[in-house]
Design a protein that fits this description.
Helix 6 (351-358) packs across helix 7. A hairpin with a 5-residue loop joins strand 17 and strand 18 (382-384). Helices cover 13% and strands 25% of the residues. It is elongated and about 125 Å long. A five-stranded antiparallel beta sheet has the order 1-10-11-6-4, with no helix packed on it. A four-stranded mixed beta sheet has the order 5-14-12-7. Strands 8-9-13 form a three-stranded antiparallel beta sheet. By secondary structure, the protein is an alpha+beta fold. Residues 380-397 have low confidence and may be disordered. The longest helix is centred in the C-terminal third of the chain and has 13 residues, at 307-319. The chain contains seven helices and 18 strands.
Amino acid sequence: MADQPTVYTIVPWVRRGLASLITAQPAANFASLAVTLRVNDSMVNAPPARLIGPGQITGLDARAVIRTDPRDGAQAFEPNYLAMVELAQPDLPWMFTPSPPVNGRLQPWICLVVLPDSDAIVVDPRASGANGITVVTINSDPKPELPDLTTIDAWAHAQVTGLDGDLNASWNGDPSKTVSRLIAARKLEADKSYIACVVPTYRAGVNAALGLPVDDQDLAPAWDANVTAPFRLPAFYVFRFHTGAGGDFASLAKNISPPQKPLDAGTRTMDVSQPGFGAAGVAGTTLGLEGALKTIGLPSTAWPAGAQAAYESQFRTALAPPKAADPVVTPPTYGGTQSGSPLPGPGAAPVWLGELNLDPRSRASGSAEGKPVVAPGADGQAGFDVNEHAPLATRCR
């Protein structure tokens, strides 16, 4: 039975546990769930349960990141690719988002940003007062460096490999088959260094990680169109990379364009003025020997006036000499054994056999990989089979 292809199922967001019960728009940067208790067969309303929100997160365990693309320190990442991080938990990007999904969209509480590694970007691995995490300061205009948070949900997704059964149940199944990803919404440039950072998307998350006061009512994004320099962001995870000079194979192939002037590629000059075997030849005659690949529409080299007929006449005699008392060693007639036919006369069938053997360019191809077989003759003397090259003729028809 043939192997079945692996099936990958990708969804725009995942929620598990209590977070999956969030349905109301929050008034604070955390979600609250109504709780009802049964006491002596009576239902009693209890205080709402407060879920953890982005304003309470001060760091992220580095083990949550299981892979980055490119890897940290990569020196030749394809600039037409996008940087990404892969997370072990399929619901991690949305785990602390306080709001419910709207029209099938759910904003993640973290995202991946990629910044140019320049003097305007300062990375402090253990900034003071910032809970011991890395802080990135953008001293130039931050607006062109940061993604649009109104569409940041499009740059995160979850994946399950080899879905077998219910999709919702699969997120709580084999953890090796589920991941989530954050993708950086930045078009990279060739031969440039970058810093990639996992950062909060809520201002409350930024303040919490930087050790600043957090207002529970603050639901504002971490930045917007009015952001100014210097701008500080806590980085839960950081990796660096450098792009290469070119892209992947597909992008490089798209750069191939037609030549600006006609090409004559695929031929090499071949001197046929001295064919040997008693044929006089035509002094100074050269032809273009064609390779397997040549320019489309490139015609074969024409013979000089009168040279082809003289060459074919003399070489025909060399291939099929008159009978003589002593054996005459002749060049092989390629294809003679397969066709069961001697070299045909001018214009006679099989025409291909004459074309193959009387044009030096065809003969050069027909003799490719050919090798004479030396074997004892009937009289014990060394001899050779001049038709050993003949099987190759079937490739030249």
